[in-house]
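The instructor's notes for this session suggest beginning with a concrete chain rather than abstract definitions. Hand out the sequence below and ask the class to guess, before any prediction is shown, which regions might be ordered.
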Amino acid sequence: MTISEALVGLRTDSDGPGPVAVEERRLSHGGFGYVCRTASRGARATEPFVLLGGSSQDRFSWVRHEPALLGLGPVTTVDLPGYGDADFLPARYGIDFLADAVRGMLDDLGLERVNLLGACFGGAVGLRFAQRHPDRVRRLLLVGMTVAIPDDYADRVPHWTRLLDEGRTGELARDLVDRFMSPPGTGPVRRHAAVSRLLYRQFVERGPDRLRMDVEHNTRLMSHDWYVPAPVPPVPALVLTGEHDTLTPPHMGLQTARRLGGAWFTTVKEADHLVPVERSDELSDLIARFCADRSIRDLPYCNPARFVPAASSAN
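After discussion, reveal the predicted structure:
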């Protein structure tokens, strides 16, 4: 059962007409508390948006994308159990549990079907949600997603856990930034230096509770299936990443698209795995276009989009 408590406020948004209503709900799933945040302006041109961020993001990480989406519908972000301001979640609870927490959130908000976007770890949760609750998804978008945790990432997890245990946060932060962002010489990336500094600062400034969650998060990743080959609902789907992503490279995104029973695939120019920050305006435009059933072909900030058939019929 999901239990909720709502807090409602208003903000003035200079990027759109009229005030934006912001509601936060404190929820509970399986005895673990978590928090969702919904921004809305009254528009309902498509189904509501639900954005599931990556492992080091929280419900505020996608605020920069709201202005482009609020003209189409409300936008909900969430700190799932074990992340952000939610309760600590032991690693024995895996991605299935988190996907069902998303379902509980939708039930509490009264949302029947949504445009669901998942980025990186949020993509794993989002895809599992689509597999377990296919009737709740209208469109599915996956950013920086892969069907397998990269070997070099998995190999670094014990090292990162040791650094966290020893309190060597500066060394850990630098190693994480180097892993998540493309190295020099890979290709041009917008705002690479600025985003690198931002990411480093965010990692260094994480408090002890967040660091404890980070350790448990990595344990969770290594203890449960990242991807399961279960059916995916036959809904419009888009898989994308930065063209210079070295954490989940484009070929991994293409493989993911083939597992979806047919999906669009593209890469964003001059971006790596941090495309939601490096090219936030362009990604917001891409999300809005796809969810409004507008063409995503021949966009100046993307490499050519193409439809990828299911793996069984792919060339």
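Then share the key points. The mean pLDDT is 92. Residues 35 and 79 are 5 Å apart (CA to CA).
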